[in-house]
Amino acid sequence: MTPMINTDDLIDAREVARLLALSHPTSVSGYLQRYPDMPRPIVDLGGRRTRLWLRGEIEAWVRTRRTADAR
């Protein structure tokens, strides 16, 4: 059985950038390369097409990063 995803929980690179306090959505690609533990998009249509992440996964990762950086 395929898990159900609430579409309200999906966010694009613009929202990921906002949550990461990045100035531009294209910076998210750099984070994906720099941080192997960063959640990967659950929808990636390739090329310059939309990628979507689960908001909860990104928010949890941000909290983890802030905790690690505070040490």
Secondary-structure topology with pairs:
Blueprint: E1 10-11, H1 13-19, H2 27-34, E2 43-44, E3 51-54, H3 55-70
Antiparallel strand pairs: 1-3, 2-3
Descriptive terms for the model:
3 helices, globular, 71 residues, Multidrug-efflux Transporter Regulator, Chain: A, Domain 2, alpha+beta, 3 strands, three-stranded antiparallel sheet
Total helical elements? 3
Mean pLDDT: 92
Reported by name, the CATH topology is Multidrug-efflux Transporter Regulator, Chain: A, Domain 2
Fraction of residues in H or I helices:
40-55%
CATH architecture: Orthogonal Bundle
Count of folded domains: 1
The strand count comes to: 3
- The gyration radius over C-alpha positions equals 13 Å
Beta percentage is 5-15%
Notes on the structure:
- By secondary structure, this protein is an alpha+beta fold.
- The chain contains 3 helices and 3 strands.
- The chain has a 3-stranded antiparallel β-sheet with strand order 1-3-2.
- The longest helix has 16 residues, at 55-70.
- The chain is globular, with a radius of gyration of 13 Å.
- 10% of the residues are buried.
